[in-house]
Amino acid sequence: MIFSIAASSLKSRKSSVILTLLSLLVSISLLLSVEHIRKEAKDSFGRTVSGVDLIVGARTGQLNLLLYSVFRIGNATNNIDWATYERIHKDKQVKWAIPISLGDSHRGYRVMGTSTDYFSHFRYGNKQALELRAGEPNIGLTKTVLGAEVAQKLGYKVGDKITIAHGVGSVSFSNHDEAPFVVTGILKATGTPVDQTVHVSLESLELVHFSAPKIAAILAAPDSPAAIEQLQPKSITAFLLGLNSKFATFGVQRSINNYRVEPLLAILPGVALSELWQMLGTVENLLRFISLLILISSLFGLTTMLLASMRERHKEIAVLRAIGAGPELLFLLIQTEAVLISLCATLMALVLVWLALHFSSAWLSEHYGLFISSNVWNSDSLLIAGIVIVATFVVACIPAIGAYRRGLHSGLNQ
Predict the structure, then answer these.
(1) Is this model's pTM higher than 0.90 or not?
(2) Where are the bilayer-spanning segments (predicted)?
(3) At a CB cut-off of 8 Å and minimum separation 6, what does 313 contact?
């Protein structure tokens, strides 16, 4: 019975109730969106690189090595000798290795020199392999495969020619014009730094740094022994390792860190990613704090609406008291009205966020490389909904106690 009385009372004050409902809907939607996107971003961050047991680079900080080798941010303190790479690659514990050479760029996007093993062994997300949107994974001499964002933002398609430049700035005065690259493939979006990378072979990177006559001579006979010898890489920036057994990870890591020929550092990607995410925890907490402030202001708006309606309901409350309604029933009636509004706003917010993510997920992944799941019906969202209902009950105690204290004669005398 109390629910039907509360529903009828809310219907009689449609305008103010709808405005309060909309205010709560916006704030709860914002809170749910921030929390969901934060969680998805954290999961996506951890899935940037998958299946890699060790990342090896010149001796530096753990985060610096992770940033420049995986996220293409910053620069290496030193290079690794090619002979060292080959020696470690041939270790019986090593299953595969992906060399990485950085230093050049194309219109602000990093150029990464690597081998064809990159397309065979690199994984992201839940061990997902790289897939092509167009063309083939051919990074032969003066051939390149573009990340999804590079191709989309710069409007490239298979068969186009591009020129890379020395350095990592968006504008360079040292372009390698003598050896333009042909786009042979474009990767599908991954939501990782792969989308922002121009992939070329290590031999191509060696080639572009030669003089113009030497480039012309090599391109005239690329398969000659002299050309092959000259294109042999001398050094690389870092490399990724996959091992035959996970149990060997710490042993191989210790062996590389104690390598005597040159100073090296081997890191575990998962540990470094966790440490990096902890550094971003302040931003994460700031987003949560702003959402909570918006929710609290909306809940106080709900309380204000109920308090304002109490003045208009003197006679209604007095009649309820006259027909036998006790103070406890009035307290429950006000609480029921507040919880009904809050419950409706929470359910509508869940549906709104789900619909928004469901219909925008493809657009977000295509244009921004953001892979946000639309599954908001999870334990975290239910926990937020529960907290909102409890908070509503607490703030609604102010008008409910006012109704509880109102005397029987109050209202009837007016």
Answers:
(1) no
(2) 286-308, 329-357, 382-404
(3) 9
